[in-house]
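Homework-ish question, so no full write-ups if that breaks the rules, but can someone show me the predicted structure for this set?
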Amino acid sequence: MSARWWFPAEPVARIAVLRAVLYPFVVLDMFLFVNDVVPKAYAPALYAPIVIPRFLHLPAPDPMLVHTLQVLLIAACAIAATGRLPRLAGWMVAVCYQWWIFIGMSYGKVDHDHLALLVALWVLPTLGRARWDSARRSEAAGWALRCIQVAVVATYFLAAFAKIRHGGWDWANGAVFTWSIERRGSMLADPLVNLPLLLVAGQWILLVAEFTSPVVFALRGRAQAVYIGGWMVFHVVTYAAIGIHFLPTMVCWLAFAPLEKLADRVRSRPLIGRQRAGRSAAGQPVSVVGDQAVQPVSD
Amino acid sequence: MSGDVEVVRLGARARAWRLAATAAVLLALAYGTIWGADRHFPFGPMVQFAFSVDPNGQIRSVYIEADTTTGDRVQVPLTAEGVGIPRAEIEGRLPAIESDPSLLQAIAVAQRRRHPDQPQYRRLYVMVDILQLKDRRPAGHEVNQLAVWDVR
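A: Not a homework solution, just the prediction itself:
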């Protein structure tokens, strides 16, 4: 892999959109997904810190600590999502959220859907101000996006290796889908335990799809979008069947999307509506914060 | 705005530290995937469902039941909204709990703190439901008790 591959010149506006999506998502994650950090802080006996927090001598969580993290995260995410103080607020989110996740993963169970989101939060503050209306491309933006993309693909690709390492080549011929449905299947999935051949076929398809996931980097445009859509469908089906959603990874697939087009649209389309609304209300065009195109009217 | 797009390049130094950081993380992930374990999070292996289930083996589901202050035997909700400790965490610490059931005290304490208005737990039972598979199809259940703890 050449060094140049890591530094494509990508639109800075894509970073702006990504910040507006990922930082609010962190707050969502804190309340919906890794939402047991606060209750766990009240059950300190079960705290068994994993390697990195132990190495860093992070203090054991108590209610005071986790509520402080929560408040800091909400504040920093709110600021960073708007694109203000991208470095200060961004690093704040990265450190606090990493700590939050370390606590969440230190009670015996570790989740594997957060790698890409963590990488995203650590690389987003490496860029300064990124505006929605920026027409620039930068290698710094390209590197950040590349890191998130690689982290997303690694989540799948490395999962295939883990399956072989821990389950052996028997994994795909085993009954692991039966196991997951039996333990946490929905009404939708429960009847599937009586279709073992279908489940075995699914296991093979998943293993092959994970191993070949880096192919996404060879695809372009529509083909790439369809491929990524395939993984989205996989996650929706998995959620319907066994209640596992992988949203923190799903949202990071956005690093592949031409989000700058969305930024374009948000900038240009509501403008017409806003101007009209402004004229009819006050007879004067209204200038909207961040809306450059409105400004010249008042000149 | 004109059609030509401004491209901002990175200097040699900016590239160097980025490549170094990238390489370090990739190496850590490679190490974790080959030799690591969950405790090396976030560099551990991506072990979501990474275990083989014998088509003629058993599927074990752990759950916890409790005798309450109202004299009922109830299932303990091992969720964030319930006692705040998910089932998988109990399963992850199962060997420790089996050799030292006093760890279950944390569950009773959590219930007291989070749901003081509900009946409280007097005695906790760690149970396992074992489903026998035959040729990948369910063929009979069995329920065993793994640990008991009298709440203090």
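Now go work out the reasoning yourself. Hint: Chain A touches chain B through 70 residues (CB under 8 Å).
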